[in-house]
Amino acid sequence: MNAPVLRAADGRTLEVTGRLVVGRDETCALSFPTEARLSRRALAVVPTGGGAVLSCLSRTHGLVVDADGALSRLPPASDDGPAGGYVLTRGSATVTGPSWGASAFVVTITAAAPLAPAVVTMDPTGTATREPVRLRTHTKEFVTALMLCRHRLLDATDLAPPPEVPQLTRAVLEATNSWHLVTALERDEATRKRLTGRIHEHLKALRVKLVRGGLAERGARLTPSVMVDLLLACGAITRSHLRLLDDETWLRAQEAQWWDA
Questions:
Q1: pTM
Q2: Backbone region of residue 251 per phi and psi (left: phi > 0; alpha: psi in -120 to 50; beta: other values)
């Protein structure tokens, strides 16, 4: 499958094969140092299934997305990270500043699929034009998603990949105070295979929910990094969820579930 393309109005073009950041800072994938109104890191573009997820990283201004005349607004980011996102699965969308008039900052993202735009726009509450992705916080699937996204929740600019399954399994068990299983994970091969197998199952279920929610095309390859961006863009996982890691009642309930994992 071909990658989406990010193009500036001045002709600079990049294939979006991984998470790209656009802004005023010269270290960005596409930099606009002469646009003083633009934040140093303003826009994140993440490929997914031939399309892309667009998120506003700026806390001082929002962004406007124009998909063939259909305008959507990406609000400024909050302390919890990007306040919603825009998912482009087909066609193209142009991103500009909020009513800036003449500006060097104009970028267009073109999906690999050649058809008309098909988009899902998320608002800050996580609602969508299609059925939103919902995760119940008391489930093992939720804590798997939370620990998958934790590094990005703590630092929205962290471009490091999420933990791989063995490390993710350990992180989930440590976060839920399942220390008996942490010990078994280290010492017993059968336990290790069983627990990592469960994490694989939860990740597979999360991929299915993202596709059913319209956030990716059926058959798209959703890497863990792309899953993180989609889960955050649709509001299924937010920074406020990190508070659960200090909630004794929630932790006891999670630990009880993992006893039987």
A1: 0.65
A2: alpha
- pLDDT-above-90 percentage for the chain: 53
How much is the mean pLDDT over the chain?
Answer: 85
Compute φ and ψ for 13, nearest 5 degrees. Answer: -135, 140
- Specify whether the CB–CB gap between 196 and 94 falls below 8 A: no
User: CA nearest 119: which of 158, 89, 147?
Assistant: 89
Show Cβ contacts of residue 141 under 8 Å, excluding neighbours closer than 6 positions. 135, 202, 205, 206
**What is the token pair recorded at 117?**
């735009």
Q: Long-range contact list for 253-256, CB < 8 A, 24+ apart? A: 253/138, 254/138, 254/140, 254/143, 254/176, 254/178, 255/176, 255/177, 255/178
Whether residue 20 contacts residue 44, with contact meaning beta carbons closer than 8 Å, is answered with yes
